[in-house]
Amino acid sequence: MRTRGLENEKGVAMVIALLILLVVTLLGINSISTSISENSISGNERTGADAFYAAEAGVQVGLEKLPATGAIAVTKIGQDSYSWTGSLGDKGSPKAIAYLGTMFRTGYDATWGFKRFQVNASGESLGSVKEVEVQATYGPITAGTSYNN
Questions:
Q1: For position 70, what pLDDT does the model report?
Q2: Is the pTM of the predicted complex or chain greater than 0.70?
Q3: What is the number of other CB atoms lying within 10 angstroms of the CB of residue 126?
Q4: Does 26 map to a domain?
Q5: What is the tally of structural domains in the chain?
Q6: Is the separation of the CB atoms in 67 and 115 below 8 Å?
Q7: Residue 61 is part of which domain span?
């Protein structure tokens, strides 16, 4: 006695094997695509961090030269990193450090003051650009309000 159901199912194993192969191939393509985009994201994060650290280096140079307020020219920080004072568009002509005036602090009498400055520095690394702004006080310095006897 012959069973007719088995005669019609000769190619089913091949179809199932091809469907499984298709699913595995799609999973492989998806994982490769994810790996490529994650690699790109981590590269962008690295160059962004390098640009931030270059801008931080520019701020540190600006703070070291206080109370002078001159501009800091484009300075090479690393192999591909640069910093300068000013905003992102000031690379060609860096801006001076801003003097914000004299302020007084609690605990000091009127003969002492503190000069306030604002240092804006930008950093660039492999096309990524970051800007850092810091306000600092310098002092105490004599405020010129003491009286001579």
A1: 93
A2: yes
A3: 14
A4: yes
A5: 1
A6: yes
A7: 4-142
Per-residue model confidence (pLDDT) at position 143: 76
Q: What are phi and psi of 18, to 5 degrees?
A: -65, -40
- Residue 12 domain-assigned? yes
DSSP 94: P
Which pair of tokens denotes residue 92? Answer: 């060609």
Q: Supply the pLDDT for residue 13.
A: 87
d(CA 75, CA 67): 20
Cβ-proximal residues to 114 (8 Å cutoff; 6+ apart), any chain: 102, 103, 104, 105, 137, 138, 139, 140, 141
* Integer CA distances (angstroms), 111 to 55, 116, 136, 145, in order: 36, 16, 20, 5
Residue 149: inside a domain? no
Q: What are phi and psi of 28, to 5 degrees?
A: -65, -45
Inside any domain, residue 147: no
| pLDDT < 50 regions, the chain | 149
Rounded to whole angstroms, the Cα distance separating 91 from 26 reads 47
